[in-house]
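Following up on my earlier thread - several people asked me to post the actual chain instead of describing it. Fair enough. Here it is, all 242 residues.
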Amino acid sequence: MSIRHKEYGLIDTEGMILDVSSKVTEVSPVVGSIYGGTLLTIKGTNFGTEKTDNPVEISTHGGIGSIKCFVQTIMETEITCRIDKNMKAKENAVEADVVVFLKTSEEAQCAGAICKWQYTSTLPTVTEMTTEFDVDSGSWEVKITGTGLRDSADAGAMSDLQINGKSQTVKTHSDTMAVFTVIDVADLTSTNIDLFFPVGIPEGNDLVKAGITLEPKLMMVTPNVGTPGGTLVRATVPGIGT
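Reply from S.P.:
Thanks for posting it. Predicted structure:
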């Protein structure tokens, strides 16, 4: 490095170092579904501020066969990314590495086994997905049944149901059943549905991708008394979409 004073010339910079490198200090989780969909949290130093600053890949054989991990959020010390949900299924216990790239196309430093990754086929299993209208709340619900749907009582161990990329509200969640209240949906019929667990995409995901159909439900009309013409009527119809 050199620093020049506008009046006195060069300033002594011996021992000064400009470090523009980046380091990965933690990756969580380090095990994920053979079908992808795992949401990773990567902690480190000197990450960018734009989603395109630090591309992330899961590498099994260098650049060959690498899987994209699409960045969701980014800040100087933390990146979250979701492993490609459309990836070709891996074999059980395939080992890989989490690679964070820098804007200069170099890789962030990662010491030891911090960035080691492993695919697993030990997954939650979905056996059925149904829809049901809850009269009390006046809202549609999606009910998922299966096994291993929740490993613990921790909130982070719950699944995430997304319709057209929008997360729906968890109503109840147990090891064998998860019920979601539909709070954000634009279409009566949707096949753009994703069910993510902390480990990623479950077994039986074809049942989820088959989609749902929500039948409009007339709950209330106000006012229900008016003149022979000209009365403004408001209908409350959950499920009608946009």
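The two ends are 59 Å apart (CA to CA). That should answer part of your original question.
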